Amino acid sequence: MNERIKKLRKALGLTQQEMAEKLGIKRNTIAQYEIGRNPPTDMVITLMCRAFDVNEEWLRTGEGEMFIQLSRDEELVAFFGDLLAGEPDFKQRLLSVLARLSEDEWALLEKIAESLTSEMKKDGDGQ
User: Fold this and answer.
1) Which pLDDT score, from 0 to 100, does residue 125 have?
2) Phi, psi of 100 (to 5 degrees)
3) What was the pLDDT predicted at 45?
4) 54 strand-pairing partners
5) How far apart are CA 109 and CA 101, in angstroms?
6) Torsions phi, psi of 67, nearest 5?
7) Residues 58, 99: Cα–Cα separation, whole Å
8) What is the spatial distance between Cα 34 and Cα 7, in angstroms, rounded to a whole number?
């Protein structure tokens, strides 16, 4: 399991310190897990799986995919949960503005998005 913990951390682009902070444990504890000196407790395994959407079977045995594949609705729920828990930023301000759009404004926004998509496809074909 130690190699999978290290692989997970690297896939997430986290340092041992960052991973430890997200899990509420010490950096040295992560280091001990990664070198195989101490195995993580069931509680820490559960924390890792919840915090990083990790497939518990993969973490324990190496079988299956590293990450749990979320449905579109589950992705949105996770996104909004993270957004609401964080400090106010551009994402929150943008979503606040979007929440106040009228139906006509949503239709205009959809046209703009379709136009941008079309332009990106044209640019991609011409290269």
Assistant:
1) 64
2) -100, 5
3) 96
4) 67
5) 9
6) -110, 150
7) 38
8) 9
